[in-house]
Amino acid sequence: MSATENAKAVLRRLTAASATERILISFAALVMAVLVGAVIILVSGRITTCQTAATTLFGTGFCYDPVEVYLVLFNGALGEPFLVNRPGILKPLNPDWNPLSFGLALTLKETTLLIFTGLSVAVSFRAGLFNIGTQGQLVLGGLATALFSFFVAPLLPSGLVGGLILIPLAVIVGALVGGLYGAIPGALKAYADANEVITTIMLNFIAAQIAFVLVSEFYGNPDSQVVETTPLPDWATLLPVAFPQGGDFSILALAFGLALVVAVWFLLEQTSFGYDLRTSGEQPEAAEYGGVDAKRTTVTSMFLSGALGGMGGAIWVLMVMGKWQAGVPALGFDGITVSILAGNNPFGVVPAALLFGTLKSGSLAVQFGTGVPKQLVGVLRGLIILFVAMPEFFRMLGSAIDLEPDRETVATDGGSLGGDDE
Amino acid sequence: MSTAVHLDEITKRFPGVVANDDVDLTVERGTVHALLGENGAGKTTLMNILYGLYEPTEGTVHVDGEPRDFDSPADAIDAGIGMIHQHFMLVDPMTVAENIVLGNEPRKWFGTTVDRERARQEVIDLSNRYGFDVNPDDAIEDVSVGVQQRVEILKALYRGADILILDEPTAVLTPQEVEELFRVFEELTAQGKTIIFISHKLGEAMHAADDITVLRDGKNVGTVKADETSNEELAELMVGREVLLEPKAEPQEPGDEVLAVQHLSAEDNRGIPAVSDVSFDIREGEVFGIAGVDGNGQSQLVEAITGLRTPTGGAISYKGRDITGASRRSRIADGMAYIPEDRHERGLVMDFDLVQNGILGSQHSPTFAADGRINWSDARDHAERIIDEYDVRPPHADADAESFSGGNQQKFIVGREFEREPDLVVATHPTRGVDIGAMEFIHERLLDLRAEGKAVLLVSSKLDEVQGLSDRLGVMHDGELMDIVDPRNTTEEEIGLLMAGERPDADATDAEPPVGDAK
């Protein structure tokens, strides 16, 4: 068998994997990533010089202890429920542990934001559209939310009542703006046959620059040196009520995100529109045959995807920043990986986002709690994401290049899939 | 008479599938042997084993009485075996002679240069010896499919083949070209060559072969002499039960006009005119057939009618209303059922299960989706009903479309479209790839729809099918509707001439040579 055939066979195998198999593959990949990461930790610990070895293996001292690093990583992400004690042994429980700690809030904050962007990407991928523009949709959606809240807040009574009115409206405005910004590449694709990968990538830059100009020239906070909008009053934002130690996490936002997960699932699996969308994504010719209006579905799917990205921006503004500030984190790009990790399944987005959140918040703990430099922590994070996402990525690749599953190619006369030929 | 090929207890297993199960096959030298069977019966797999493309899991191949173990087609070619695949492997811009010698070119100047003159002469000698009518200097892209096939045969002969395997050689030919091919068979066997051809058409095997071996489900179910058997016996061997071969439509008076196509023109995907100025109508209780070699504009015509292709000219009216610009969805909603030509691309979503595929086209209809929400339990009942009534096997509504065999996919599509309660059924190759039993059933159902007063547009490259089922028959060639004939009073030869582009009134001297444009 040639290398190409081998590669194709692997792709076919991955494409045909069942849901259970895929979850098992993900876990195996996670374990592999941890093992490979451990080797890297040891190697870099050998290269570095330090006063006392963190661990000793086969009579050789190493500056970093991989077991400790990983324990601190996951322990930190949960707000340190365990006391990590050298050499890498957990004490049963940390008597000071508070489930509502900063570490856990940080994990859940990232998770919440990534649920929105992950859903955004998942919707477009399911429709067969590679929306790489969630970042831009998030940037503009967030800005719209911030400006809307800033201008409308003075008209409303401050306090709980004002918040109840303003926050939902602000999220809707963010969704609308993000959706419209997503609909642009959708319309370009549908009516001018412009490749959405290219247009959405370009529109990311445009969004960032538009937002920058608007804030720095017109709507910025005059009292600030930074390019940012005037901070919103507390009552107009989502406060970390349940997490008194801070961490910019609001349980309401997470609940909203989870509700959206169910809503997106319902839309995709239970409605006629979802059927059109999925059919277009799976097999455009069959969708056309089934009476799906390809152009309209393209624009609508991109609007929907953009709206979810825009809501992500709204939540970032309302929950994390309390204002819009230039240099928006790459939540939209992480959403692509989250969606691929989730197999573009809305329910899969939740654990995928949680893994991301855990890694992000855990890395901080590693940075502060061990001597390991943050660059190395970044490598470990990257490894885990790479390992876990790759099988799913190749699965998508396998379906995208339309490989015929093994048995059909051999079982029929003529060798064509489900063979016919007069 | 000696034995040219003997396959001894060949078994070929693929993961999860037994393609050939303990098959014995003996082919005598200097005869034509037909390998007959349904799609998926294992015919091509068996021949690929003989040609060295697959290795048998068990069993041995004997050529000229010697056991052989082929690692690759190169070994098979050395042993004097040549195979002509369904899809020709020719280089279009190169000439006939160049294609024939390709890979084995005679050389001059110590092997540095191809000796074109000698190549050309060798090809002329070769075609004279077997009485082939080919011009060595024509470019492949300029000659008809029939000639291309002869070039493929010459290529095999040039490499010294004594045993020729042809995989479904008649699939792309007009009836005249088929006759020509069978004449070539006679010439070749007269000179001692042995021919094995794969077919799933009874008539051809009866007509052209000396011996016929029938495969069913990977097993050899019998080898018979062509002049000692009958169509009925062969059909029974192929299917495993008695079948009714000839569809016969009872005469019936058609009702009101359902579909009218006026001066319709359309282009193919490359923007080349594919349908030009086609006009016809179909009435209630009528089957209108369209015959023609594949690739003569039938696909584009059907797509224009069903709303998948925007016509470049002309008009289509359906049930008295102009629908030339109407959307595909509105046509479906208006009772237009369509069995598409390409079931893998269009007819089914391969990664969807049959429950989801069962509502393809009905996903917005009130039957399955009131208020925009799909009622999946109704959809499941619907899919299970189709599976049951149309005998889709295995009967698993939850299995992906991809996992079904071609014939069963087709049965499911036919069932879905027939159960739409349509006013017009557009059926393209409705029995392609299904077994004879299912074919009989689909034909009966088509005639039932006709009896219920539905209009049917039937496009098929199987002449006996369109001829037997149609009330009126249009013949297409190169995008034009050559003529509309009464299929009951027209011979196969007359229709064949129309398919090749010759109008009966054309003067014999200036008539164009039959050139099939099939791709």
From TrEMBL, chain A:
CDD domains: TM_PBP1_transp_TpRbsC_like. GO terms for cellular component: plasma membrane. The chain crosses the membrane at residues 23-43, 100-125, 137-156, 162-184, 196-215, 249-268, 303-324, 336-356, 376-394. Signal peptide: none annotated. It comes from the Archaea. It is found in: Cell membrane. It is a multi-pass membrane protein. InterPro entries: ABC_transp_permease. The keyword RNA-binding does not apply. One of its GO terms (molecular function) is transmembrane transporter activity. PANTHER family: ABC TRANSPORTER, PERMEASE PROTEIN, GUANOSINE ABC TRANSPORTER PERMEASE PROTEIN NUPP. This is Sugar ABC transporter permease. It comes from Haloferax gibbonsii (strain ATCC 33959 / DSM 4427 / JCM 8863 / NBRC 102184 / NCIMB 2188 / Ma 2.38).
Automatic annotation (TrEMBL), chain B:
It is found in: Cell membrane. It comes from the Archaea. The keyword Kinase does not apply. The keyword Cytoplasm does not apply. Residues 5-242, 259-503 form the ABC transporter domain. It is a peripheral membrane protein. SUPFAM superfamilies: P-loop containing nucleoside triphosphate hydrolases. Signal peptide: none annotated. It holds the Pfam family ABC_tran. Transmembrane segments: none annotated. One of its GO terms (cellular component) is plasma membrane. Keywords: ATP-binding, Cell membrane, Membrane, Nucleotide-binding, Repeat, Translocase, Transport. GO terms for molecular function: ATP binding; ATP hydrolysis activity. Residues 500-519 are annotated as: Disordered. This is Sugar ABC transporter ATP-binding protein. The lineage of its organism: Archaea, Methanobacteriati, Methanobacteriota, Stenosarchaea group, Halobacteria.
